[in-house]
Amino acid sequence: MKFLSLALIVLTGFVGYVAGQAPADQQPPLQAPDPGATDAVYAAVVRYQVANWQIGADSYCIEIKGGDADEKLLHSLKPLTVKPASECLKVKKKFDMVVIDKHSKKKSVLFGASDIRWTSETTAEVEGGYLCGSQCMAGGVYHVAKDEGQWKVTKFDVYIRD
């Protein structure tokens, strides 16, 4: 009976210990390493998107986490012709759709980025992509790293392309 009681105590202690451990894939998310890191990562992603854009566009409308990019981010991207996402229109034509600037009515592209997933103090991943028409869109994961004090996109893994 003593052995059974001791085994039960040890088993209860072990179960309690295991229950208190979060699995590796469920560790609490890392936080931004410093107050300006979030804005710097979003700016790096947008600069990368614009620099790698190969189709003509008069302006770039920016969406962050499903809404308009804030003025602080847009201002930090000058001299690029960037605007909040709401300044773009999706115009349906007979067989397709195009994105245009609301005011100039010229071609535009909608760049977007979602929440940042911090993988360390100097690396992060951001889901994002672009839309310029019904036959012109892609999404994927931007891998961002801090290099010599600057956040830069090191890789873009495309997972949707039409």
Provide structural commentary.
This protein has helices at 2-19, 37-51, 71-76, and strands at 59-64, 67-68, 82-84, 88-92, 97-101, 108-118, 123-133, 136-147, 150-161. Helix content is 24%, strand content 41%. The longest helix is centred in the first third of the chain and has 18 residues, at 2-19. It has 3 helices and 9 strands. Strands 1, 2, 3, 6, 7, 8 and 9 form a 7-stranded mixed beta sheet that branches. Strands 4-5 form a two-stranded antiparallel ribbon. It has one domain (27-161). The protein has 162 residues and is an alpha+beta fold. The N and C termini lie far apart (69 Å). The radius of gyration is 23 Å and the shape is globular.
Characteristic key phrases:
disordered N terminus, 162 residues, alpha+beta, two-stranded antiparallel ribbon
Structural class: alpha+beta
pLDDT averaged over residues:
82
How far is it from the N-terminal to the C-terminal residue, by CA?
A: 69 Å
Given the structure, what is the number of helices?
Answer: 3
List the helices and strands and how they pair.
Layout: H1 2-19, H2 37-51, E1 59-64, E2 67-68, H3 71-76, E3 82-84, E4 88-92, E5 97-101, E6 108-118, E7 123-133, E8 136-147, E9 150-161
Parallel strand pairs: 1-3, 1-6
Antiparallel strand pairs: 1-2, 4-5, 6-7, 7-8, 8-9
Please provide a brief summary of the model.
24% of the residues lie in helices and 41% in strands.
